Amino acid sequence: MGLMDGKRGVVMGVANDHSIAYGIARALHAEGAELITTYQGETFGKRAAPLAHSLDAVAFDVDVTDPASMDALLENARSSWSGVDFVVHAIAYTDKSELSSGFAFRETSRANFLKTMEISAWSFIDTARRFAPMMEGGGALLTLTYAGSHKVTPNYNVMGVAKAALEASVIYLADDLGPQGVRVNALSPGPMKTLAGSAIGGARRTYKHTEANAPLRENASLGSIGGTAVWLCSDWGRHTTGETIMIDGGYHVMGMPVLDNLSGH
């Protein structure tokens, strides 16, 4: 039997076959989970729909800033299943023009700050509010973050602030929902070659630097992230909540680059 046999859930934010959401959905499906996936907009739908089909899933176009769209997703889940065992939130957005310079003053606009926070942090809270009542027997809520939430990362800027808010939301949701058996956790992969990752200025250099200096000398893969998600969504993860799980080859433990990569002699 697969670890997820008999379990049903939603994976939000599938963009293409390189997206972290797809890697997680693929791993959950391989272990027997029944899925609903979401994407946003017709452009992503052209790629997301065939991917959903390959996972025996149904894909819905969902805009997390539109309450009616979120209502429709919840109603589709209710009409398909009597309950939900997990929801994976792989949703984030900011104007990429604000990820290529400084953070202070005019580089961070008020409008984009608010939009970034709404989509990248608030939408997870909104998702939890909607789906937790469907987890009567307990369940798992997962979101995705990055180390730029607590350590300055080049060009991550307003997204780092939003991810910090997201991680704080994880621990407060874990406390609120724990009594009903709902676990709330975040996955924090290192740099990834994804559509979202490519929007950050200097992404290739960051990816290479992390790979060269992480203890394992590797960045995360879709498989390793998906496997961690399976653990947390399965019964094996039933006593893990309020955590941000690092999946970065150990890079987060390093205080500076490895000796061979230090400049100078």
TrEMBL record:
It is an enzyme of class 1 (oxidoreductase). It comes from Hasllibacter halocynthiae. Its EC number is 1.3.1.9. InterPro entries: Enoyl-ACP_Rdtase_NADH, NAD(P)-bd_dom_sf, SDR_fam. Pathway: Lipid metabolism; fatty acid biosynthesis. The active site is at residues 146, 156. One of its GO terms (biological process) is fatty acid biosynthetic process. NAD(+) binds at residues 13, 19-20, 40, 63-64, 91, 163. CDD domains: ENR_SDR (cd05372). GO terms for molecular function: enoyl-[acyl-carrier-protein] reductase (NADH) activity. This is Enoyl-[acyl-carrier-protein] reductase [NADH]. Belongs to the short-chain dehydrogenases/reductases (SDR) family. FabI subfamily. It catalyses: a 2,3-saturated acyl-[ACP] + NAD(+) = a (2E)-enoyl-[ACP] + NADH + H(+). Keywords: Fatty acid biosynthesis, Fatty acid metabolism, Lipid biosynthesis, Lipid metabolism, NAD, Oxidoreductase.
